[in-house]
Amino acid sequence: MNQLLSPRQVAAAIGVSESSLKRWCDQGLLSTVKTAGGHRRIPVQEALRFVREQNYAVVEPRLLAMPGTDNRKARRIENCAQRMVEELLGNNEQACQAIVFDLFLAGQPVSQIFDEVISLAFRMIGEKWERHEAEVYQERCSCQIALRILHELRSKQTPPDSGLVALGATIEGDQYSLPVMMSEIVLRAAGWDARLLGSSIPFDSMAKAIQQHKPEMFWLSVSFVPDESAFIAGLNRLFEVASKLNTAVVIGGRALTTEIRTRLRYSAFCDTLRHLEEFAKTLRRRTEVGPKKTHKPRKKG
Amino acid sequence: MNQLLSPRQVAAAIGVSESSLKRWCDQGLLSTVKTAGGHRRIPVQEALRFVREQNYAVVEPRLLAMPGTDNRKARRIENCAQRMVEELLGNNEQACQAIVFDLFLAGQPVSQIFDEVISLAFRMIGEKWERHEAEVYQERCSCQIALRILHELRSKQTPPDSGLVALGATIEGDQYSLPVMMSEIVLRAAGWDARLLGSSIPFDSMAKAIQQHKPEMFWLSVSFVPDESAFIAGLNRLFEVASKLNTAVVIGGRALTTEIRTRLRYSAFCDTLRHLEEFAKTLRRRTEVGPKKTHKPRKKG
DNA sequence: CACGAAAACATTCAAATCATTCATTTTAAG
DNA sequence: CTTAAAATGAATGATTTGAATGTTTTCGTG
Question: Tell me, in Å, how far CA of A65 is from C1' of D20?
Fold first, then answer.
């Protein structure tokens, strides 16, 4: 589903002349593919990357295969979570989409959108539920909406080409799929070939996956721990397996209290998706540069 | 393995018009074989060479995803499930997508694609798992792939305009989201404004949802029953609430054995999604036509 | 084998895109 | 403020693309 756009379409979408856009293509600011007849074609993901990086205002989002945006041009992230809560509980999917995609088009890092809007919104919904101001079904329905938005967002990312591989999952009994899907998107944005295995996966099966795929990273979003001691034992066992294959074990999630963490072995812990992004970028640099240096010894920091 | 492709197939694969592709053939950019009747046939390797040489972005990767299949034969639904299983376990998302979308574009009803390809494929994966031929993580990963395909499919549907409203869910403890999502798509295809509440919803909250939204239908996909007597009691309670508001309660799913069903109260039971579709269409006609006829009394069947 | 629907053919034509040039606007430096 | 450099966007004629047309071929089915 790799949509291609003509220079005219992209030019119209960002409100700029066709001439300029073609010049930018030729300068390499936008990578294009060419038809056999020599016409330029721009992959949507590439157009979106350009828009986000150059901070261009998108005049016609529909031309970029994006859902229509809110005209309020809410490019500021501050009050978005509050609005998101209202629109989620009101079952207003379009408005929710608009909030997220406006921020995305405005160039906000996905990690920040997730931390400061989506995660926050669901925390607020959780609090509302505790105060009996929201029903369970409303929370679940909101999850469905968010899931669809995440899918949409994922499909708009530049597909990973030949990056490092990361596998991700949630532990057995943990059914919260939103956080682990957000992690996947963040890792892909950071240049990783992140592959989500799914929710509720036994530790033994995770170990099998590591042995069979030999990823550079294995990440775990932990939103709920059904059995604390089993979790600790399982994760430490997993860390053993991963260590032997040079797989970094990264953990995060609201269920990981300080108390639990002290009894765990892992390569990195991330409090937020922003942390995850930072860590992923660092690890990528190290891992990619590292091997090249082996045959040319240098002193290390 | 000298598979031949028609110009249309190659054109679709690289996202250009048939006209252009044929022109390129005639210009010699693609060498073709001709049938006795003068139709162009393009060898797969020639198409691949062209794609690589032109540095062309593959829009519809069917060509690369399933180099061994002929489109006409691929559209026959019989062997799709078997191929689907292989591609799912091989983590080959594009090939899976190709299978489903080929059928969809060929005009197969979604209900049939789901019953005879996706559901069947997962049943086969389940059997493989029982024989220790597949890992848990592979099954979960396959679920993720299927979820993404369903999302894609859903986004391709014409959004429901002003149809009758249906709410759907799975019961508390039942985390199988694939069947309930397929139901949603089927209902939407049948003209309903189907809204999936989500997975694992307590009966009390379902009742709240019915009271607040007053849908014409409430459907339940039951793939797993954690507590049989609680389920029976809960559903019968739900049926009471629904009856008062003229909401039809429709149930289905592999966990509903005959034994359980005899103790349940419901408006309809559907063994397959095909049944669901049929029932939804019937109910829609009745419900839409019904009110208009009230002032013109007739004898009923 | 014959039939009929779906696919492919050749051809035409309007619309889109190309490379290039040039006037105008914006930016930056003096 | 002036001026030069850089960026933008409109205009040009040639080329490419894709949709539409009516006819012919292919292929599964009876």
Answer: 27
The CATH superfamily holding the domain A165-292 is Cobalamin-binding domain (3.40.50.280)
On the CB side of A23, CA atoms within 13 Å amount to 5
In this structure, are residues A14 and A66 in contact, taking their beta carbons and an 8 Å threshold? Answer: no
Q: Look at residue B172 and tell me whether its pLDDT is greater than 90.
A: yes
B152 vs A1, A136, A175: nearest CB: A1
pLDDT exceeds cutoff 60 at B281:
yes
Q: What is the pTM of this model?
A: 0.91
**The Cα angle at residue B153 between residues A223 and B183, in degrees rounded to 5:** 70
Given a contact cutoff of 8 angstroms between Cβ atoms, the answer to whether A163 and A193 are in contact is yes
Parallel, antiparallel or unpaired: strands B165-171 and B217-221: parallel
In sign, the C-alpha dihedral spanning B9, B11, B14, B16 is negative
CA-nearest residue to B55 within chain A is A33
CA atoms within 13 A on the CB side of A242: 27
Give the C-alpha separation, B134 to B131, whole Å.
8
CATH 3.40.50.1580 matches A80-155:
no
What is chain B's Cα-based Rg?
23
Indicate the CATH number for domain B165-293. 3.40.50.280
State the best of A45, A93, A197, A200 to mutate against chain B, taking most chain B CBs within 10 Å.
Answer: A197
In the complex, which nucleotide's C1' lies nearest to the CA atom of residue B27? Answer: D16
Identify the pLDDT of residue A293.
42
Distance B146 CA to D16 C1' (A): 39
